[in-house]
Specification:
This protein is 44% helix and 6% strand. It is built from 22 helices and 8 strands.
Length: 566
Protein backbone atom coordinates (compact mmCIF):
# COMPACT_ATOMS: atom_id res chain seq x y z
CA UNK A 1 0.00 0.00 0.00
CA UNK A 2 1.38 3.40 -0.97
CA UNK A 3 1.60 6.17 1.58
CA UNK A 4 1.92 9.69 0.27
CA UNK A 5 3.82 12.29 2.21
CA UNK A 6 5.13 15.71 1.15
CA UNK A 7 8.64 15.48 2.58
CA UNK A 8 12.06 16.77 1.68
CA UNK A 9 15.00 15.13 0.06
CA UNK A 10 17.39 17.11 2.22
CA UNK A 11 20.78 15.62 3.07
CA UNK A 12 21.07 13.56 6.23
CA UNK A 13 22.38 15.83 8.96
CA UNK A 14 24.00 13.93 11.79
CA UNK A 15 24.90 17.07 13.62
CA UNK A 16 25.49 18.19 17.14
CA UNK A 17 23.62 21.42 16.49
CA UNK A 18 22.70 23.08 19.77
CA UNK A 19 19.12 23.93 18.99
CA UNK A 20 16.84 22.81 21.78
CA UNK A 21 13.13 22.43 21.89
CA UNK A 22 10.27 21.09 23.97
CA UNK A 23 11.24 20.75 27.58
CA UNK A 24 14.83 21.85 27.01
CA UNK A 25 16.70 24.62 28.71
CA UNK A 26 20.18 25.42 27.45
CA UNK A 27 23.13 26.55 29.56
CA UNK A 28 24.08 30.18 29.42
CA UNK A 29 27.02 31.03 27.12
CA UNK A 30 30.36 30.68 28.89
CA UNK A 31 31.71 33.95 27.47
CA UNK A 32 29.71 37.16 27.75
CA UNK A 33 30.05 39.35 24.67
CA UNK A 34 29.61 43.08 24.62
CA UNK A 35 27.30 44.75 22.11
CA UNK A 36 30.23 45.98 20.02
CA UNK A 37 31.99 42.62 19.61
CA UNK A 38 29.04 40.36 18.78
CA UNK A 39 28.83 40.55 15.01
CA UNK A 40 32.51 40.36 14.05
CA UNK A 41 33.49 37.24 16.07
CA UNK A 42 30.35 35.43 14.89
CA UNK A 43 31.15 36.26 11.27
CA UNK A 44 34.71 35.00 11.70
CA UNK A 45 33.67 31.75 13.40
CA UNK A 46 31.06 30.88 10.79
CA UNK A 47 33.49 31.62 7.97
CA UNK A 48 36.19 29.47 9.57
CA UNK A 49 33.81 26.56 10.03
CA UNK A 50 32.61 26.79 6.45
CA UNK A 51 36.17 27.02 5.10
CA UNK A 52 37.18 23.91 7.05
CA UNK A 53 34.21 21.93 5.81
CA UNK A 54 34.62 23.17 2.24
CA UNK A 55 38.14 21.73 2.29
CA UNK A 56 36.79 18.39 3.48
CA UNK A 57 34.26 18.30 0.65
CA UNK A 58 37.00 18.62 -2.00
CA UNK A 59 38.84 15.46 -0.95
CA UNK A 60 38.75 12.94 -3.81
CA UNK A 61 37.81 9.96 -1.62
CA UNK A 62 35.05 11.68 0.31
CA UNK A 63 32.09 9.31 0.67
CA UNK A 64 28.40 10.15 0.74
CA UNK A 65 28.36 9.87 4.51
CA UNK A 66 31.34 12.19 4.88
CA UNK A 67 29.75 14.83 2.65
CA UNK A 68 26.62 14.60 4.77
CA UNK A 69 28.68 15.04 7.94
CA UNK A 70 30.44 18.07 6.43
CA UNK A 71 27.12 19.79 5.73
CA UNK A 72 26.01 18.87 9.22
CA UNK A 73 29.08 20.52 10.73
CA UNK A 74 28.23 23.77 8.97
CA UNK A 75 24.69 23.62 10.36
CA UNK A 76 26.11 22.98 13.81
CA UNK A 77 28.45 25.99 13.66
CA UNK A 78 25.70 28.36 12.53
CA UNK A 79 23.09 27.10 15.01
CA UNK A 80 25.63 27.21 17.85
CA UNK A 81 26.14 30.90 17.22
CA UNK A 82 22.44 31.61 16.69
CA UNK A 83 21.49 30.04 20.02
CA UNK A 84 24.31 31.68 21.96
CA UNK A 85 24.20 35.19 20.53
CA UNK A 86 22.31 37.65 22.73
CA UNK A 87 20.56 40.74 21.48
CA UNK A 88 21.56 44.05 23.09
CA UNK A 89 19.07 46.06 25.07
CA UNK A 90 18.90 48.65 22.31
CA UNK A 91 20.09 48.96 18.71
CA UNK A 92 19.53 51.54 15.94
CA UNK A 93 16.01 51.24 14.59
CA UNK A 94 15.88 50.46 10.85
CA UNK A 95 12.97 51.39 8.61
CA UNK A 96 10.32 48.70 8.04
CA UNK A 97 7.88 48.38 5.20
CA UNK A 98 5.93 45.27 6.14
CA UNK A 99 3.89 43.47 3.54
CA UNK A 100 0.55 41.99 4.42
CA UNK A 101 0.04 38.24 4.57
CA UNK A 102 1.36 37.34 8.02
CA UNK A 103 -0.88 35.17 10.13
CA UNK A 104 1.15 35.73 13.29
CA UNK A 105 1.24 39.21 14.80
CA UNK A 106 4.44 40.47 13.16
CA UNK A 107 3.63 44.08 12.32
CA UNK A 108 2.88 44.96 15.95
CA UNK A 109 6.36 43.96 17.13
CA UNK A 110 8.58 44.42 14.05
CA UNK A 111 10.31 47.49 15.48
CA UNK A 112 11.09 45.90 18.83
CA UNK A 113 14.87 46.21 19.41
CA UNK A 114 15.38 42.46 19.77
CA UNK A 115 13.50 41.77 16.52
CA UNK A 116 15.60 44.38 14.73
CA UNK A 117 18.80 42.88 16.11
CA UNK A 118 18.05 39.38 14.82
CA UNK A 119 16.85 40.74 11.50
CA UNK A 120 20.29 42.32 11.10
CA UNK A 121 22.04 39.21 12.42
CA UNK A 122 20.32 36.94 9.88
CA UNK A 123 21.28 39.34 7.09
CA UNK A 124 24.87 39.65 8.32
CA UNK A 125 26.94 37.01 10.18
CA UNK A 126 24.43 34.19 9.61
CA UNK A 127 23.48 35.07 6.02
CA UNK A 128 25.21 32.17 4.26
CA UNK A 129 23.68 29.43 6.39
CA UNK A 130 20.25 31.05 6.62
CA UNK A 131 20.18 31.05 2.81
CA UNK A 132 20.66 27.26 2.88
CA UNK A 133 17.92 26.84 5.46
CA UNK A 134 15.56 28.90 3.31
CA UNK A 135 16.31 26.60 0.38
CA UNK A 136 15.16 23.64 2.52
CA UNK A 137 11.93 25.38 3.52
CA UNK A 138 9.71 24.61 0.47
CA UNK A 139 10.38 20.88 0.78
CA UNK A 140 8.69 20.79 4.17
CA UNK A 141 6.43 23.86 4.16
CA UNK A 142 3.23 22.33 2.66
CA UNK A 143 3.28 19.41 5.09
CA UNK A 144 3.98 21.61 8.13
CA UNK A 145 1.34 24.20 7.20
CA UNK A 146 -1.24 21.43 6.71
CA UNK A 147 -0.55 20.04 10.19
CA UNK A 148 -0.65 23.51 11.74
CA UNK A 149 -4.02 24.16 10.08
CA UNK A 150 -5.34 20.80 11.31
CA UNK A 151 -4.55 21.98 14.85
CA UNK A 152 -6.04 25.47 14.35
CA UNK A 153 -2.63 27.13 14.48
CA UNK A 154 -1.29 29.91 12.24
CA UNK A 155 0.70 28.59 9.28
CA UNK A 156 3.57 31.00 9.87
CA UNK A 157 4.65 28.94 12.88
CA UNK A 158 6.38 26.93 10.15
CA UNK A 159 9.31 29.30 10.71
CA UNK A 160 9.73 28.05 14.26
CA UNK A 161 11.50 24.99 12.79
CA UNK A 162 13.91 27.32 10.99
CA UNK A 163 15.22 28.82 14.22
CA UNK A 164 15.13 25.45 16.00
CA UNK A 165 17.12 23.36 13.53
CA UNK A 166 17.39 24.97 10.09
CA UNK A 167 14.96 22.21 8.97
CA UNK A 168 17.52 19.53 9.83
CA UNK A 169 15.96 16.18 10.70
CA UNK A 170 18.91 14.92 12.72
CA UNK A 171 20.12 18.04 14.51
CA UNK A 172 21.15 17.26 18.10
CA UNK A 173 21.43 19.97 20.74
CA UNK A 174 23.68 20.29 23.77
CA UNK A 175 20.61 19.44 25.85
CA UNK A 176 20.12 16.29 23.70
CA UNK A 177 17.02 17.59 21.93
CA UNK A 178 16.75 15.93 18.52
CA UNK A 179 15.33 16.53 15.06
CA UNK A 180 13.68 19.31 13.10
CA UNK A 181 11.44 20.20 16.04
CA UNK A 182 14.09 19.55 18.71
CA UNK A 183 12.11 17.23 20.96
CA UNK A 184 13.52 16.08 24.25
CA UNK A 185 13.05 12.34 24.78
CA UNK A 186 10.40 12.58 27.49
CA UNK A 187 8.28 15.14 25.63
CA UNK A 188 8.60 13.21 22.37
CA UNK A 189 7.35 10.03 24.01
CA UNK A 190 4.54 11.96 25.68
CA UNK A 191 3.33 12.96 22.22
CA UNK A 192 3.51 9.45 20.81
CA UNK A 193 6.96 9.35 19.15
CA UNK A 194 8.81 6.05 19.12
CA UNK A 195 12.29 6.52 20.58
CA UNK A 196 14.52 3.49 21.15
CA UNK A 197 17.84 2.03 20.00
CA UNK A 198 16.42 1.28 16.53
CA UNK A 199 13.97 4.05 15.71
CA UNK A 200 13.93 7.72 16.75
CA UNK A 201 10.85 9.37 15.30
CA UNK A 202 12.10 12.77 16.44
CA UNK A 203 14.17 12.48 13.23
CA UNK A 204 11.07 11.68 11.14
CA UNK A 205 9.79 14.99 9.70
CA UNK A 206 6.24 13.66 9.36
CA UNK A 207 5.82 12.06 12.78
CA UNK A 208 7.73 14.86 14.54
CA UNK A 209 5.69 17.58 12.83
CA UNK A 210 2.45 15.91 13.91
CA UNK A 211 3.74 15.74 17.48
CA UNK A 212 5.09 19.31 17.47
CA UNK A 213 1.88 20.85 16.17
CA UNK A 214 -0.17 18.98 18.78
CA UNK A 215 2.21 20.20 21.47
CA UNK A 216 2.02 23.79 20.20
CA UNK A 217 -1.78 23.56 20.11
CA UNK A 218 -1.82 22.36 23.73
CA UNK A 219 0.51 25.18 24.79
CA UNK A 220 -1.55 27.77 22.93
CA UNK A 221 -4.74 26.55 24.59
CA UNK A 222 -3.03 26.62 27.96
CA UNK A 223 -1.44 30.07 27.63
CA UNK A 224 -3.82 31.86 25.25
CA UNK A 225 -1.12 33.25 22.94
CA UNK A 226 0.94 31.96 20.02
CA UNK A 227 4.01 33.84 21.22
CA UNK A 228 3.67 32.62 24.80
CA UNK A 229 3.23 29.10 23.39
CA UNK A 230 6.44 29.51 21.36
CA UNK A 231 8.27 30.72 24.48
CA UNK A 232 6.97 27.71 26.42
CA UNK A 233 8.07 25.42 23.58
CA UNK A 234 11.60 26.73 24.06
CA UNK A 235 11.85 27.22 27.81
CA UNK A 236 9.14 24.95 29.19
CA UNK A 237 5.53 25.80 30.11
CA UNK A 238 6.22 25.75 33.85
CA UNK A 239 8.73 28.58 33.66
CA UNK A 240 6.44 30.71 31.48
CA UNK A 241 3.41 30.15 33.72
CA UNK A 242 5.39 30.99 36.85
CA UNK A 243 6.60 34.16 35.18
CA UNK A 244 3.07 35.16 34.21
CA UNK A 245 1.83 34.63 37.76
CA UNK A 246 4.60 36.83 39.12
CA UNK A 247 3.95 39.42 36.40
CA UNK A 248 0.31 39.84 37.40
CA UNK A 249 -2.62 41.01 35.32
CA UNK A 250 -1.88 43.00 32.14
CA UNK A 251 -2.55 46.74 32.25
CA UNK A 252 -5.89 47.93 30.94
CA UNK A 253 -5.90 48.96 27.27
CA UNK A 254 -8.15 51.70 25.94
CA UNK A 255 -9.38 50.14 22.68
CA UNK A 256 -10.83 53.47 21.62
CA UNK A 257 -7.31 54.83 21.20
CA UNK A 258 -6.36 52.06 18.79
CA UNK A 259 -7.02 51.80 15.08
CA UNK A 260 -8.41 48.33 15.71
CA UNK A 261 -9.43 46.76 19.04
CA UNK A 262 -6.97 44.19 20.41
CA UNK A 263 -8.22 40.63 20.13
CA UNK A 264 -7.54 38.03 22.82
CA UNK A 265 -4.42 36.69 21.09
CA UNK A 266 -2.91 40.16 20.62
CA UNK A 267 -3.30 40.83 24.31
CA UNK A 268 -1.65 37.50 25.10
CA UNK A 269 1.19 38.25 22.70
CA UNK A 270 1.71 41.58 24.46
CA UNK A 271 2.10 39.59 27.67
CA UNK A 272 5.13 37.83 26.18
CA UNK A 273 6.89 41.13 25.54
CA UNK A 274 5.99 42.36 29.03
CA UNK A 275 7.39 39.11 30.42
CA UNK A 276 10.55 39.35 28.32
CA UNK A 277 11.38 42.71 29.91
CA UNK A 278 11.62 41.05 33.34
CA UNK A 279 14.05 38.58 34.84
CA UNK A 280 11.46 35.80 34.93
CA UNK A 281 12.63 34.15 31.70
CA UNK A 282 16.03 32.94 30.58
CA UNK A 283 17.74 35.26 28.12
CA UNK A 284 17.45 32.66 25.38
CA UNK A 285 13.67 32.38 25.82
CA UNK A 286 13.34 36.18 25.80
CA UNK A 287 15.05 36.19 22.40
CA UNK A 288 13.17 33.18 21.00
CA UNK A 289 10.07 35.01 19.77
CA UNK A 290 12.08 37.92 18.31
CA UNK A 291 14.08 35.34 16.34
CA UNK A 292 10.83 33.79 15.11
CA UNK A 293 9.46 37.16 13.99
CA UNK A 294 12.71 38.08 12.22
CA UNK A 295 12.83 34.67 10.49
CA UNK A 296 9.22 35.08 9.32
CA UNK A 297 9.91 38.54 7.92
CA UNK A 298 12.87 37.30 5.88
CA UNK A 299 11.18 34.08 4.71
CA UNK A 300 8.12 36.04 3.52
CA UNK A 301 10.20 38.58 1.57
CA UNK A 302 13.72 37.18 1.07
CA UNK A 303 14.62 39.53 -1.79
CA UNK A 304 13.77 42.58 0.29
CA UNK A 305 16.38 41.52 2.82
CA UNK A 306 19.09 40.66 0.30
CA UNK A 307 18.47 36.91 -0.11
CA UNK A 308 17.87 35.05 -3.34
CA UNK A 309 14.25 34.13 -4.10
CA UNK A 310 13.31 30.83 -2.48
CA UNK A 311 13.28 28.22 -5.26
CA UNK A 312 9.95 26.67 -6.16
CA UNK A 313 10.47 23.07 -5.05
CA UNK A 314 7.59 20.63 -5.39
CA UNK A 315 6.85 18.61 -2.24
CA UNK A 316 8.47 15.22 -2.52
CA UNK A 317 5.97 12.35 -2.52
CA UNK A 318 7.12 8.94 -1.33
CA UNK A 319 5.88 5.38 -1.39
CA UNK A 320 6.51 2.87 1.39
CA UNK A 321 7.97 -0.63 1.15
CA UNK A 322 6.98 -3.16 3.86
CA UNK A 323 9.75 -5.22 5.49
CA UNK A 324 9.51 -7.70 8.35
CA UNK A 325 13.22 -8.54 8.79
CA UNK A 326 16.20 -6.24 9.29
CA UNK A 327 17.31 -4.65 6.03
CA UNK A 328 19.99 -2.07 5.39
CA UNK A 329 19.02 1.29 3.92
CA UNK A 330 21.94 0.89 1.54
CA UNK A 331 20.33 -2.28 0.15
CA UNK A 332 16.98 -0.53 -0.21
CA UNK A 333 18.73 2.32 -2.01
CA UNK A 334 20.19 -0.15 -4.50
CA UNK A 335 17.00 -2.10 -5.20
CA UNK A 336 14.97 1.11 -5.55
CA UNK A 337 17.65 2.78 -7.71
CA UNK A 338 17.81 5.73 -5.32
CA UNK A 339 20.94 7.66 -4.24
CA UNK A 340 21.89 6.58 -0.72
CA UNK A 341 21.95 10.17 0.52
CA UNK A 342 18.38 10.71 -0.66
CA UNK A 343 17.08 7.48 0.85
CA UNK A 344 18.76 8.17 4.21
CA UNK A 345 17.26 11.66 4.22
CA UNK A 346 13.68 10.37 4.04
CA UNK A 347 14.41 7.51 6.48
CA UNK A 348 16.55 9.38 9.01
CA UNK A 349 14.50 7.91 11.88
CA UNK A 350 16.23 4.51 11.42
CA UNK A 351 19.13 5.43 13.67
CA UNK A 352 21.28 2.40 12.86
CA UNK A 353 20.73 2.61 9.11
CA UNK A 354 18.88 -0.70 9.44
CA UNK A 355 15.19 -1.43 9.97
CA UNK A 356 14.33 -2.90 13.39
CA UNK A 357 13.95 -6.68 13.82
CA UNK A 358 10.77 -8.61 14.57
CA UNK A 359 8.25 -6.03 13.45
CA UNK A 360 6.50 -4.85 10.29
CA UNK A 361 8.29 -1.68 9.20
CA UNK A 362 7.65 0.68 6.31
CA UNK A 363 10.70 2.03 4.49
CA UNK A 364 10.17 5.11 2.35
CA UNK A 365 11.25 5.14 -1.29
CA UNK A 366 10.64 7.66 -4.10
CA UNK A 367 7.16 7.51 -5.56
CA UNK A 368 6.73 4.89 -8.27
CA UNK A 369 9.53 2.66 -7.01
CA UNK A 370 7.76 0.71 -4.27
CA UNK A 371 6.59 -2.28 -6.36
CA UNK A 372 9.96 -2.94 -7.97
CA UNK A 373 11.79 -2.47 -4.67
CA UNK A 374 9.41 -4.85 -2.84
CA UNK A 375 9.88 -7.55 -5.47
CA UNK A 376 13.66 -7.12 -5.51
CA UNK A 377 13.87 -7.37 -1.71
CA UNK A 378 11.73 -10.52 -1.69
CA UNK A 379 14.13 -12.17 -4.14
CA UNK A 380 17.22 -11.14 -2.17
CA UNK A 381 18.81 -13.80 0.10
CA UNK A 382 18.54 -12.96 3.78
CA UNK A 383 22.32 -12.92 4.14
CA UNK A 384 22.55 -10.07 1.63
CA UNK A 385 19.98 -7.79 3.21
CA UNK A 386 22.31 -6.31 5.83
CA UNK A 387 25.79 -5.98 4.29
CA UNK A 388 26.67 -3.14 6.65
CA UNK A 389 25.95 -1.94 10.16
CA UNK A 390 26.10 1.83 10.65
CA UNK A 391 28.01 3.32 13.58
CA UNK A 392 27.85 6.93 14.80
CA UNK A 393 31.22 8.16 16.01
CA UNK A 394 31.39 9.24 19.64
CA UNK A 395 33.91 11.45 21.39
CA UNK A 396 37.32 9.84 21.82
CA UNK A 397 36.73 6.93 19.45
CA UNK A 398 39.33 5.68 16.96
CA UNK A 399 39.05 3.17 14.13
CA UNK A 400 40.80 0.61 16.33
CA UNK A 401 38.37 1.03 19.21
CA UNK A 402 35.36 0.88 16.90
CA UNK A 403 36.80 -2.18 15.19
CA UNK A 404 37.22 -4.01 18.51
CA UNK A 405 33.61 -3.31 19.39
CA UNK A 406 32.39 -4.90 16.16
CA UNK A 407 35.03 -7.62 15.88
CA UNK A 408 36.53 -6.29 12.66
CA UNK A 409 39.91 -4.80 11.76
CA UNK A 410 40.44 -1.04 11.59
CA UNK A 411 41.71 -1.38 8.02
CA UNK A 412 38.47 -3.08 6.97
CA UNK A 413 36.46 -0.16 8.34
CA UNK A 414 38.80 2.31 6.63
CA UNK A 415 38.41 0.55 3.27
CA UNK A 416 34.62 0.52 3.61
CA UNK A 417 34.61 4.28 4.22
CA UNK A 418 36.78 5.65 1.44
CA UNK A 419 40.13 5.09 3.16
CA UNK A 420 39.24 7.26 6.15
CA UNK A 421 41.77 7.51 8.99
CA UNK A 422 41.29 8.01 12.72
CA UNK A 423 42.52 11.60 12.36
CA UNK A 424 39.58 12.43 10.13
CA UNK A 425 36.91 11.03 12.44
CA UNK A 426 34.45 13.61 13.75
CA UNK A 427 31.83 13.28 16.46
CA UNK A 428 28.47 12.46 14.84
CA UNK A 429 30.02 11.03 11.66
CA UNK A 430 28.37 7.84 10.37
CA UNK A 431 30.62 4.89 9.45
CA UNK A 432 29.76 1.70 7.60
CA UNK A 433 30.84 -1.50 9.40
CA UNK A 434 31.05 -4.49 7.02
CA UNK A 435 29.61 -7.79 8.18
CA UNK A 436 25.90 -7.07 8.48
CA UNK A 437 23.75 -9.10 10.85
CA UNK A 438 26.73 -10.98 12.28
CA UNK A 439 28.28 -7.68 13.43
CA UNK A 440 24.93 -6.50 14.77
CA UNK A 441 24.51 -9.71 16.76
CA UNK A 442 28.10 -9.47 18.05
CA UNK A 443 27.52 -5.95 19.39
CA UNK A 444 24.26 -6.91 21.08
CA UNK A 445 25.95 -9.96 22.63
CA UNK A 446 28.84 -7.81 23.87
CA UNK A 447 26.38 -5.35 25.44
CA UNK A 448 24.65 -8.17 27.29
CA UNK A 449 27.97 -9.70 28.35
CA UNK A 450 29.18 -6.31 29.58
CA UNK A 451 26.04 -5.94 31.68
CA UNK A 452 26.57 -9.40 33.22
CA UNK A 453 30.32 -8.99 33.77
CA UNK A 454 29.82 -5.65 35.47
CA UNK A 455 27.27 -7.19 37.84
CA UNK A 456 24.51 -5.09 36.32
CA UNK A 457 26.32 -1.75 36.36
CA UNK A 458 27.56 0.54 33.59
CA UNK A 459 30.35 3.12 33.84
CA UNK A 460 29.45 6.26 31.89
CA UNK A 461 31.79 7.08 29.02
CA UNK A 462 32.46 10.50 27.58
CA UNK A 463 29.65 11.58 25.23
CA UNK A 464 27.08 9.04 26.50
CA UNK A 465 23.55 10.05 27.51
CA UNK A 466 21.09 8.45 29.89
CA UNK A 467 18.71 7.77 27.01
CA UNK A 468 21.41 6.07 24.98
CA UNK A 469 22.40 3.86 27.92
CA UNK A 470 18.74 2.94 28.47
CA UNK A 471 18.43 1.87 24.84
CA UNK A 472 21.66 -0.10 24.98
CA UNK A 473 20.52 -2.23 27.93
CA UNK A 474 16.86 -2.35 26.83
CA UNK A 475 15.46 -0.72 29.95
CA UNK A 476 13.21 2.30 30.29
CA UNK A 477 14.54 5.77 31.05
CA UNK A 478 12.24 5.90 34.08
CA UNK A 479 13.68 2.66 35.44
CA UNK A 480 17.24 3.98 35.12
CA UNK A 481 16.27 7.11 37.02
CA UNK A 482 14.58 5.06 39.75
CA UNK A 483 17.48 2.63 40.19
CA UNK A 484 20.05 5.40 40.37
CA UNK A 485 18.15 8.03 42.37
CA UNK A 486 18.22 10.58 39.53
CA UNK A 487 14.71 11.91 40.05
CA UNK A 488 13.50 13.73 36.94
CA UNK A 489 17.04 14.57 35.82
CA UNK A 490 18.87 13.03 32.87
CA UNK A 491 22.19 14.55 33.91
CA UNK A 492 25.05 12.08 34.21
CA UNK A 493 28.83 12.54 34.31
CA UNK A 494 31.76 10.71 32.77
CA UNK A 495 32.97 7.94 35.10
CA UNK A 496 29.67 7.70 36.98
CA UNK A 497 28.58 4.10 37.77
CA UNK A 498 24.95 3.43 36.88
CA UNK A 499 22.84 0.45 37.74
CA UNK A 500 21.37 -0.95 34.49
CA UNK A 501 19.53 -4.12 35.58
CA UNK A 502 16.72 -4.64 38.03
CA UNK A 503 17.89 -7.90 39.59
CA UNK A 504 21.23 -7.00 41.12
CA UNK A 505 22.34 -7.18 44.75
CA UNK A 506 24.08 -3.96 45.72
CA UNK A 507 25.24 -5.37 49.07
CA UNK A 508 24.79 -8.37 51.34
CA UNK A 509 21.82 -6.85 53.11
CA UNK A 510 19.80 -6.53 49.90
CA UNK A 511 21.01 -9.71 48.17
CA UNK A 512 18.18 -11.76 49.65
CA UNK A 513 15.59 -9.40 48.21
CA UNK A 514 17.19 -8.52 44.89
CA UNK A 515 15.44 -11.13 42.79
CA UNK A 516 11.83 -11.98 42.34
CA UNK A 517 12.37 -15.68 42.84
CA UNK A 518 13.99 -15.46 46.29
CA UNK A 519 12.34 -12.41 47.83
CA UNK A 520 9.10 -12.13 49.77
CA UNK A 521 9.68 -8.73 51.40
CA UNK A 522 11.53 -5.55 50.54
CA UNK A 523 12.96 -2.87 52.84
CA UNK A 524 11.93 0.53 51.47
CA UNK A 525 14.81 2.97 51.21
CA UNK A 526 14.67 6.75 51.08
CA UNK A 527 13.72 8.01 47.63
CA UNK A 528 12.25 4.72 46.38
CA UNK A 529 8.81 4.67 44.78
CA UNK A 530 6.23 1.95 44.24
CA UNK A 531 6.71 2.06 40.48
CA UNK A 532 10.48 1.62 40.88
CA UNK A 533 10.06 -1.31 43.26
CA UNK A 534 7.45 -2.89 40.98
CA UNK A 535 9.81 -2.60 38.01
CA UNK A 536 12.65 -4.06 40.05
CA UNK A 537 10.73 -7.23 40.94
CA UNK A 538 8.74 -7.52 37.73
CA UNK A 539 5.31 -7.03 39.30
CA UNK A 540 2.62 -4.41 38.84
CA UNK A 541 2.07 -1.39 41.08
CA UNK A 542 -1.53 -2.53 41.62
CA UNK A 543 -0.46 -5.95 42.90
CA UNK A 544 2.00 -4.33 45.31
CA UNK A 545 -0.72 -2.06 46.65
CA UNK A 546 -3.16 -4.96 47.08
CA UNK A 547 -0.56 -7.17 48.80
CA UNK A 548 0.28 -4.43 51.29
CA UNK A 549 -3.12 -2.79 51.79
CA UNK A 550 -1.87 0.54 50.41
CA UNK A 551 -4.53 3.04 49.38
CA UNK A 552 -2.18 5.11 47.23
CA UNK A 553 1.40 5.18 46.00
CA UNK A 554 2.03 8.04 48.45
CA UNK A 555 1.48 5.68 51.39
CA UNK A 556 4.96 4.21 50.89
CA UNK A 557 7.37 5.19 53.68
CA UNK A 558 11.13 4.73 54.05
CA UNK A 559 12.01 1.97 56.52
CA UNK A 560 8.84 -0.04 55.96
CA UNK A 561 8.96 -3.67 54.83
CA UNK A 562 6.53 -4.48 52.05
CA UNK A 563 5.46 -7.84 50.67
CA UNK A 564 6.43 -8.76 47.14
CA UNK A 565 3.62 -10.81 45.55
CA UNK A 566 4.61 -13.94 43.67
Amino acid sequence: MARWYPVALAGLVASCAPAAGPGASRPEPLVARTVDDRAEPADTEVAAAEQTQASAETLPDTTVLERIAADSAQDAAALELLHDVESPDSVPEPEFDLASGFDINVARYAEHPRVQYYLNYFQGPARKRVAIWLERLPRYEPMIRAELAANNLPGDLVYLALIESGYSNTAVSRARAVGMWQFMRATGKMYGLRIDSWVDERRDPIAATKAATRYLADLTGQLGSHYLAAAAYNGGPGRVMRGLRRLGDPPAVDDASLDEPLDEFAQGDDQFFRLSSTGYLRRETKDYVPKLIAAAMIAKQPEKYGFEPIPATAPFAVDSVPVTEPVSLEVVAKVSDTPLQDLMAINAHFVRGITPPSSLTWVRVPVGKAVAATEALAALPETERVPYVFHTVRRGETLGRIGRRYGVGASVIADANGGISSRRLRIGMTLKIPGGKARMAAVEASDRAEARSSNGYHTVRRGETLGGIAGRYRVSLGALREWNGLGASNLIRTGQRLRVTARVASDSRSSSSATKSSASTHLVRRGETLSGIASRYGVSVESLMRANGLRSARSLKAGARIKIPS
